[in-house]
What does this fold into?
Amino acid sequence: MITKSAFMDWCECSKGAWLARYEPHRMVAGKVSAFDRMLARDGYAVEDAVRDWVSGWPDAEDCSFQVVFSDGRFEARADLVRTVADGGIDIFEIKSSSSVRRSGRDQLVDLTFQTVVARRSGHQVRGASIMHVDPDYVRGERLEPDALLVAVDVTREVNELAAEVEAKMMEAAHHFSLVDIDRSGCDCRYRSASSRCAAFAYLNPDIGPDSAHVLPRISAKRLQMLDGEGRLAIGDVREADVTTHQLPVLQAFHDGRPVIDHEGIAAFLQPLAWPLTFYDYETFASAVPIATGLSPHRQLPVQFSAHVLHEDGRLEHHEHLSPAPGLHDALVDALVASLPAFGSVIVWNESFEKSCNRRLCEHLPERRPFLEDLNNRTVDLMLPFRAHYVDHRFGGSVSIKNVLPVVCPHLAYDETAVHDGAGAMEAWLEMFETEDVRRRSDLDVQLRRYCALDSFAMVEIFRFLKNVVAAPAG
It folds into this structure.
């Protein structure tokens, strides 16, 4: 029996899907992350909202959730099925996304698989729809499922895809019937680490941590070319093979030491105006808004940490942690009280904080002058690490989680506590929802420590860059 999940896995990587079925010990199971748990939570919350919505339909008694179809060879579980007057059915796929994702056609392929299996098992499928949340919905005092949710009829697209998907299903069935497979490489060979199957290491033992994959934004076409020439190891990649943006990373790997542009770093530091304010947001967003005034998937800050460094070396720390959702005014009031009205404002990956401030402007128009000024004074500390200070130990990434342990090894995130953005989102939600006072206090401490480390890490990275510039003269 080939389930929808097995088929979708086969579409992504046929060999990985075969091994998952017959030799699961070959798979390297990734740890379920906080991000995965939040996605699952969103999915359950949206399904609950759909149940509330459907209960008010005039034909609610003709609707069933989690209906299984099987033709003896394939099996599909439909989120929602409605039986119509002539005995036919409508199939609904429930998604926590804010639109029908046609890129890659994953959602449509998913629903088409269900439709094909339903028809092969004797059902007349009249319609196929995808339910998702409306990104423009704004929650009032109570949740309104009929306004939150949108049902998009994609019957025509599903019918157009049906023959193609059914042909692929036959290919998958043949593949799963094989006694063995070719184990040299797989469909994920030219993909980034986040897009690979769990059998990647087993099927591609020649690809180690120092392969051309570490080059930022390297294309699958370029990787395939290098592989065809037997030059996939980073040591075999030539300067002519890479872009200007990738060149410093390649040089750092070849030299085994940082590539440093002292003049570039000095030019970045020189315009900074004192005092320097280093700040970081932690945000929360959910598919189903949990408070008045919120919209689906709309990330808004629930916490900030700010370190203010004065020219004489004094360092001040300010912070705020919202105890409940929807308290944007209190958070911005705390920002106004904490941040100097002048000087440079420093963040890591400015697009994130700036977009948060623009969203806050929409909720708090009276604070627009302050928030826009904040954005106008913002400087991105990540920029020097794209081209002016490149270390092969960053692994081709300029995430602060990759840069910090290399340039400031005395600082580290506690992996046993909150240590990333998704984990912070999950912890904040639990802190808000739990009735366990001790647990709430523990999460409060973890969140404050994590966010404070993010902003203090930027202070220490700034000091590191100052020392790098001073080193040649010293």
Observations:
- The mean pLDDT is 95.
- The chain has 17 helices and 13 strands.
- The longest helix spans residues 437-473.
- The longest strand covers residues 74-83.
